[in-house]
Amino acid sequence: MTKKPLSLVLIGFFLFSCLLGVFSPSPAMAGAKKRIGVVDFENASQISDRAMGRGISDILVNELVKNKSYQVVEREQLRAVLAEQRLGATGAVNPATAAQLGQLLGLDYLVVGKIVEAGAQQINLFGLATQTEVKVVLSVRMIDATTGNILWAEQSEGSVKMGALNDKDGRTIFAQGQSNSAFSEAARKAVAKVVDKINEMNPLEGFVVQVSGRKVYIDLGREQGVQPGQSYVVFREGNVITHPVTGKILGAEKYDIATIKIVSVDNDMSIGEVQGSALGLQAGDKIRKK
User: Fold this and answer.
1) What is the pLDDT of residues 210-231, one digit of tens each?
2) Strand ranges (E), the chain
């Protein structure tokens, strides 16, 4: 098999596909949530275009707002403070400036990153058949904005493969998918892995709104990323836990009651089936993604 790079012109379509369907997040709900900010990603890939970084970070923001455990800071507010304080406008923000930014905006976390690769390769399979692999690789760091400590740093990759058939003169007679939509899908796959990692820090939480036999109705739905087959833990909170020196409230004791498996999903509500005993479950109990 032989490989050859595709024209970088095709990759330019990635910009538009990243930005399509991206909307400004709605104001975060009030409450004891972790405040998180996402800086425009730095573009260190072979494609020289600043808007790519903004497109990636916008996708990330729109996924994070689905987790009710986070209050996502408005992007324009974050950019304005970055510009005013001259802290840097992209993923090049370092831990020290992240702590400064955290203090100014009351952030708990700051997510910074860069696009390290955005490209496509065409593989000649069997003469008249070719396969194109579109790949996006992100390097992401999550910083504790109260201390400047890096909580984790890793790379995330998303890729999509498309097949094509050509005639003897090399002209395409059948193509699977389009390059611009493939780049968008690859980017979203890479971002999805980042979101999973971020959500591990503060799993998605909600409330039980009704219990009917073994059926449990919760206030999380499709809009929050709930899907059939997912498992959630039902729990209750006990005594508040405070820091013995600073007096800061760190959280509360948690007592697991049951596990439910999602069987039906609506926009803002889902139905779960209790796995094991349903004894003691009641409306008002809290739930978190397992």
Assistant:
1) 999 999 999 999 888 899 999 9
2) 2-5, 34-38, 42-43, 70-72, 109-124, 129-144, 150-166, 172-175, 205-212, 215-218, 231-242, 249-265, 270-275, 286-289
Architecture label for domain 2-201: 3-Layer(aba) Sandwich (3.40)
Q: What architecture is domain 205-289?
A: Beta Barrel (2.40)
**Residue 4, token pair as written in the block:** 């050859």
- Rounded-to-10 torsion of CA 245, 198, 226, 30: 50
Distance, C-alpha 101 to centroid of its chain: 21
Q: CA 31, 33, 39 angle in degrees (round to 5)?
A: 130
> pTM to 2 decimals?
0.70
For residue 96, give the amino acid letter: A
Which amino acid, one-letter code, is at 8?
L
Query: What value, to the nearest 5°, has the Cα angle with vertex 218 and ends 213 and 224?
Result: 150
